[in-house]
Structure to design on (529 residues):
């Protein structure tokens, strides 16, 4: 976003909010190549899924580093072909509660509730529920410490280190 | 009850939290992503390029594709000296461009597993190519390569290489100034309720979102806990200090330009500038060829304070946001406004100025 700060999309800082049913045109010049993304900057709307990938292809004159991977001209050519057809792979964490409902829950309960439901690849994925045996077998040292702080012995069925543990960790601050 | 005592003396009401938030897991059977590559029969070899784009609201974790090392050739949209790795630690807002050699047709798991401590969370997609590819997901058999990472993002063998952010080098090399014109020390802390966070001692007031845009009404001399101002073509150091512990990493994103990670270390930052600190603890700094990208996560403050120093050049005048990319931290106030190059702000076009 070079030289067009009014198209950066931060409410109250670079623009007025976009009201429901209204539109806003972000106009900017692609001065950089590479992979980027667009997303809402209004409160927690990233958690609601308001985002997407942007790919800007480099000019042919841009110096590429593929010659450092291989000195074989055919291989470098194959890499350049692959780059020209690059595919975005958007990785997301996803929740089944909306960001505004979650914020209301934080106010009502007095704690953060950052427990997620799934990991998505390009918007696709599913909720996997693991057995307590699997969860116990994967526990890291940091997680064991976390549980100990909360006087807990195991993660929940959502593999979360319990609300008590996270509160204790916070309260020590 | 335990909650009433714990949350910093502030009242809590854990009974307001429905059981599906933390405790009850209900599986779903939705489709997983399949990356299908059609190989050309004429070319000697096939490579696939993928742009990994991390939109995470919370987690940081490990990315890997079974049986396929990754050549990382660009980070946050800029070429680097390529690194050959089996896994990448991906945090909020990161982008990694990778090249993958497709030399054994079949179906392979693409994995992401969170390494954020509070919760285990993993997901999969499928990479499918060649005559042995096709629809559906990989099935376990004797010929399938082992995974490089497990479901909590930990490497399965000692030979698994992770992308080395501190070792990444811009391609072609770029220039970072050895000195800064201005230094801002920012004290990160929990501020008030356990869901309130400050990037620099005070929370960024939520009602500012509804106010008139700062870009339309600059405050050239404003310097406070949520606002800093710089002059165009100067070099600026931002020192993020986790002043209390334990504190999780904060993936910091500054809008408007890339920045260099020039140093980090344990303890409070008891210096007035990077120059002074680098004279006392040179091993904590790289002022020669530091990594450059759109954002950097502060180190975790486990047993005591930690700090992180980034440097940037003011070349893009405007009002830019700087914030922790974890959604609950940002909602809780972990943001600041930066008036970069406030001496040379561009005139805002009427279509934006008059938008209501």
């Amino acid at each position: 976003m070079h030289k067009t700060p009014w198209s950066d999309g931060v409410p109250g800082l670079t623009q007025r909010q976009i009201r429901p049913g209204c539109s806003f045109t972000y106009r900017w010049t692609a001065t950089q190549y590479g992979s980027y993304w667009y997303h809402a900057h209004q409160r927690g709307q990233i958690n609601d899924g308001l985002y997407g990938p942007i790919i800007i292809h480099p000019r042919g004159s841009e110096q590429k580093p593929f010659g450092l991977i291989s000195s074989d001209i055919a291989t470098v050519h194959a890499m350049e072909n692959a780059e020209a057809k690059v595919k975005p792979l958007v990785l997301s964490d996803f929740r089944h509660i909306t960001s505004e409902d979650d914020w209301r829950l934080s106010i009502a309960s007095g704690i953060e509730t950052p427990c997620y439901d799934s990991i998505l690849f390009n918007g696709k994925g599913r909720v996997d529920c693991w057995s307590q045996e699997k969860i116990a077998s994967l526990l890291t040292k940091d997680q064991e410490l976390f549980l100990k702080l909360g006087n807990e012995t195991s993660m929940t069925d959502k593999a979360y280190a319990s609300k008590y543990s996270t509160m204790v960790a916070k309260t020590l601050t | 009850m335990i909650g009433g005592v714990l949350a910093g003396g502030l009242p809590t009401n854990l009974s307001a939290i429905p059981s599906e938030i933390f405790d009850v897991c209900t599986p779903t059977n939705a489709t997983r992503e399949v990356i299908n590559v059609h190989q050309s029969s004429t070319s000697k070899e096939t490579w696939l390029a993928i742009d990994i784009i991390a939109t995470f609201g919370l987690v940081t974790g490990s990315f890997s594709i079974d049986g396929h090392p990754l050549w990382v050739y660009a980070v946050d949209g800029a070429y680097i000296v390529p690194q050959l790795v089996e896994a990448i630690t991906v945090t909020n807002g990161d982008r990694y461009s990778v090249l993958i050699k497709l030399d054994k047709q079949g179906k392979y798991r693409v994995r992401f597993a969170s390494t954020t401590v509070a919760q285990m969370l993993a997901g999969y997609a499928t990479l499918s190519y060649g005559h042995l590819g096709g629809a559906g997901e990989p099935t376990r058999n004797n010929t399938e390569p082992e995974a490089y990472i497990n479901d909590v993002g930990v490497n399965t063998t000692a030979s698994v290489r992770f992308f080395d952010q501190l070792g990444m080098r811009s391609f072609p090399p770029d220039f970072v100034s050895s000195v800064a014109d201005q230094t801002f020390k920012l004290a990160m802390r929990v501020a008030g309720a356990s869901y309130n966070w400050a990037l620099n001692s005070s929370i960024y007031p939520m009602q500012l979102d509804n106010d008139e845009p700062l870009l339309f009404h600059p405050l050239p001399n404003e310097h406070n806990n949520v606002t800093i101002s710089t002059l165009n073509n100067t070099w600026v150091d931002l020192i993020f200090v986790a002043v209390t512990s334990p504190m999780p990493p904060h993936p910091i994103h500054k809008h408007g330009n890339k920045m260099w990670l020039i140093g980090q270390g344990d303890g409070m930052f008891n210096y007035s500038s990077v120059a002074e600190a680098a004279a006392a603890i040179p091993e904590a700094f790289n002022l020669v060829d530091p990594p450059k990208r759109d954002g950097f996560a502060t180190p975790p403050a486990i047993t005591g304070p930690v700090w992180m120093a980034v440097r940037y050049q003011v070349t893009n005048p405007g009002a830019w946001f700087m914030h922790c990319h974890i959604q609950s931290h940002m909602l809780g106030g972990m943001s600041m406004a930066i008036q970069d190059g406030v001496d040379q702000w561009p005139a805002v076009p009427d279509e934006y100025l008059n938008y209501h």
User: Anything to note?
Assistant: The first strand of chain A starts at residue 34 and ends at 39.
